[in-house]
Structures are given as C-alpha cells and as structure tokens.
Amino acid sequence: MKILSLFLLTLFLVLNSVFAQNGIQVxxxxxxxxxxxxxxxxxxxxxxxxxxxxVASIDPSLTLPTASTxxxxxxxxxxxxxxxxxxxxxxxxxxGDIDSNGVLHGNIWVRGGGDPSFGSKYFSELDxxxxxxxxxxxxxxxxxxxxxxxxVIADASEFGYQGVPDGWxxxxxxxxYGAGPSGLTIYDNLLAVDxxxxxxxxxxxxxxxxxxxxxxxEFYNYVVSSRKSGDNVYIYGAPYSLDRFATGTLPAxxxxxIVKGSIPDPEHQFAYEFSKKMKENGIELLGxxxxxxxxxxxxxxxxxxxxxxxxxxxxxxxxxIINTTNHRSINLFAEHMINLVGYEQTGDGSTSSxxxxxxxxxxxRFSMDGAHINDGSGLSRMNAISASHFVDLLKYMSTSQNAxxxxxxxxxxxxxxxxxxxxxxxSAHGKMMAKSGTMTRIKSYAGYIKSVNGGHYAFALIVxxxxxxxxxxxxxxxxxxxxxxxx
Length: 487
Prior knowledge:
By secondary structure, the chain is an alpha/beta fold. Helices cover 32% and strands 24% of the residues. The protein has helices at residues 2-32, 71-82, 131-142, 170-173, 266-280, 292-295, 301-304, 318-328, 331-346, 351-363, 387-397, 403-408, 470-485; strands at 41-48, 53-58, 89-94, 97-98, 103-105, 108-111, 147-148, 152-155, 190-197, 206-211, 218-226, 232-236, 243-251, 254-262, 284-285, 289-291, 308-314, 432-439, 442-450, 456-464. Helix 9 packs across helix 10 (351-363).
C-alpha cells in the first residue's frame, strides 16, 4: 500500500511538472501563431535554475538584435571583472613651476579615467552638479595659484575618440540616448534645450536657453508647435561636430519645454566647464583651453610621471552605476562599462578593446558561438544575441560571487525601473526581475522569475519585426511571463 501511494505521488508530481512545462511551451507557441507576429523572428528559452534543465523554448539559438537587454552583458562583465567597489578615477595635474606671485608657469592637465558619474544628475543634485569642479579650483587656490600662463588641457585619450560605437544610427547620435562615452564624461554628456512654443499650430518654436553652454555650437532649429502631445523632436549631429539640427514638434502654447540632446565633444566641454569655475573664483587663465584630441597627442603614464598630481577624484561605486544602468537603462553608463573593462584589463579604453575582453571572458564560461556584440548598451542594430546566450549568462551570474548584487540591479515587474508597468497586478508582479529592451520593431526581456510554487527560472524572450505597437507586443509577452510565474 505504501509503495502504491509513493508511486501515485511520484506520478502526480511528474504529471504536474510536465503539465506546467507544457503550459509554458503552449504559451510561447501560441505567441508565434499570433497574426501580428506572422513575419516576426522569435527566440525564447527558459530553464529551471535548480535542475539546469530547459523548461520551454522556441528557436533558442536564433541570434537577433535585442536593444537594451544587451546591457546585461556589459554590466555583468564589469561587475565580475572590476568588482562592486571599483571607482573610476579622474586625475588633476600641473606641469611647470608656481612662483612666489602665484603664477603657474605651465599647464593644468585633466587626465580622464572614464568616470561616467562626474557631475551626473543621477549622483548629484542638479543645482550642485559642479561641486567637484569647485572643489578642484579650491585645491588650486590652496597651492597658491592665481594665474596660469598655460592652458587647461583635457586628456580623454586613454579611451580613444571613436565618438560612438559601430552600428549606431544617424537618427540617434544627437539625442540624449545617443550620447557617446568618453574618457572625460561630464554632466551625463547631455545638452538640455529649453523651447518655447507658440499657440498657433505649425509656427516655429523658439529657444529660451541651452544648458550647459557649448562654445561655438551652431544650433539649427526647425521645431514647430503641434496639437500632438509629448516630445516629438529629434536632434541630429555627429560626435565632435558643432552643428546640431532639431526637427519635429512640441505641444503648442508652452512657455518652457526641455528637450535633451548630446554634447558634441565631452573632452572639450570638461575643459570649458573647469575654466569657467577658475574664472569665477579669480584664477586667471592665459592659455585658454585645449584637448588632447585637437592637439593630436596621446599622453602616456610616463609623461604624467613628470607632472605634479594635485588630486585624484574617485567616481561613484561601480555597483551604484550598474544599478542605475539596469534600472533606468542608461546607454551612456552601459558603454562606459565596456570602456572601463577594456582599460583596466589591457590599458586600452576603446570600445573595441572592451568588447574583446567581454567576448574572451564569457567564451571560457559558455558558448558564445553566433553572438555578435557591437556595443554595451544595445543601441547598435548590428548586435545579434540569442535567448540561449542570455540564459547562459543569467545561469552563470546566478551562482557568481556577485549574484545578489547583479540580480538586485534588475528592475522588478510591476514595481520598479523600466519594468514598473510590466505585468502590473498580474501573476508575475513582484516575481520577475529582468532587463527590457525596446527599439523600433524590437522587443525583448531577459532575467529571472520566481514562481508561486518556489521555482526559480532564468528566461529570455526576443521578438523582432512584429506588426503591432510596442505596448501591444508587451501585453502579448506578458502572457508568457505570467505562465512562468504560476508554474
């Protein structure tokens, strides 16, 4: 009798497991049959992290552009290689001598170390984002410097001057989300343009102000007022180009409407902001501002050995930057993760160097065959990553020494970050921790789901070229997430 009872219990558990697994498989197969996905490409996989067995899948090895879920690779790589307490440094030097009259017969050098948090709105109050620059000027004054014969030279050469990674579209480059990484990033490399729109539909908007001030910027304004709600403006402009073009519409009859774009040359902007703070505090600068890019120099460590270090500024902790990156999907920060990994591992902070480190690191831990990662943020449409690649990454990170920090960096469905409206008040609410990705005709999610029955799963779902709206696509995908959460 006991044997029969045990057999029936085992059979019940097996059938229940099979039923649940089939339920997820049915949900994903139903998604593929949706008429609005008849021309779509889909890659899906979910595994049980307890058994490491695949629960359900559809074309799990199909590589596709994924948009911002690619940030899982950049943040996981930085976290595992650099550690949670890593802080990027920006160093302040001078060359020459300071005489008894307070004249520096030389230059001030700012050597960038790729800190994305310098003056960032995510790590300082907006009205106090120049605190560190003021502190730098204070240190110069304490050295007795009242006048500088030379220049302020900003040096971001350690991270190269590619501007933005390969594969970024022209339509993205001048906008806030297209701000490229730099060895000297300041104020999130963002330019805020304050527009005023007339009440008459179709009439030109005017510009109240821009912040920060960008020297010699030529801004061509083709923005008009409209009955449409929200920001429908695109700002066009290449890295290092001082020409910017704004087109599109803003709501009519607004006295102030701020649109964000990207700073053309962060290295030059850093030097300019620093020089302004010097002037405000009575330090005379005779040689103006210069940049390593414009001087066509790449300063080496040995050259800095012959300069006097004034201070070494440490940026925000890496884990705090990663939390912000994954919760708010900040492209700039994700790109900096790639640059910093390359810099610390090879001495070369370029995007290509960082991507090589990323690939080498992960291919020794699981198969990266077929994966093509061209940037850290997912903005490049040249990226091609499969659901299997994501699930392998998530599986590894679930047992990493940084597992808790990585998982906690992810938004929670229905509650936080970019997932606050996903599965809200549904079965996966509060049970799904994941990164989302959205671009035109691209929707993806990858992360972890804890089921109501105690299961722990890693999943990835990528859909390209659907015919419905982005919000409608999200609702279709929520069916699959809720099914996993009720397994």
